[in-house]
């Protein structure tokens, strides 16, 4: 779990990260972006989330011509822990919030062995 959180500061994590027995869930606020504006990739154990939105508008009133353009860009990356099923990562965009579900692979669960300490 700690590897998943390395790139996020605590102030950015509030109400955004949840760990369950079977998965990790992360929410990202991405107002103004649609699912078509977002690209999610996994490469070398890293989850990359990028969003880009361009909007151009032109019009005319009487003898005046006007144009307006807006642009927004979002990019973040997370180092994935070793116990995830990369091929089963899912994402959904709803009301400007991206929900990413990262399933855990139970076969890769960490093995913890207690070591006995002997007295001398």
**How many alpha or pi helices?**
2
Q: What class would the helix/strand composition place it in? A: mainly beta
| Portion in beta strands | over 45%
- The rounded distance between the terminal residues' Cα atoms is 37 Å
Largest sheet: 4 strands, antiparallel
Helix content: under 10%
Radius of gyration: 21 Å
Mean pLDDT: 83
- The coarse silhouette is rod-shaped
The order of strands across the largest sheet is 1-2-7-6
| Low confidence ranges | 5-14
Q: What sequence of helices (H) and strands (E) makes up the elements?
A: HHEEEEEEE
Number of beta-strand segments? 7
Keywords: Stress response
InterPro entries: A-crystallin/Hsp20_dom, HSP20-like_chaperone, HSP21-like
Pfam families: HSP20
Protein name: Small heat shock protein HSP20
Could you write a compact summary of the structure shown?
The chain is mostly beta strands and 120 residues long.
Outline the secondary-structure elements.
Layout: H1 2-5, H2 10-13, E1 17-19, E2 23-29, E3 38-43, E4 46-61, E5 64-79, E6 90-94, E7 97-103
Antiparallel strand pairs: 1-2, 2-7, 3-4, 4-5, 6-7
What can you tell me about this protein's structure?
One of its GO terms (biological process) is response to heat. With 120 residues, the protein is mainly β. It is built from two helices and seven strands. A hairpin with a 2-residue loop joins strand 6 and strand 7. It is rod-shaped, with a radius of gyration of 21 Å. About 8% of the residues have low confidence.
What key phrases describe this protein's structure?
single chain, 120 residues, mainly beta, 4-stranded antiparallel β-sheet, 3-stranded antiparallel β-sheet, 50% strand, rod-shaped, HSP20-like_chaperone, Small heat shock protein HSP20, stress response
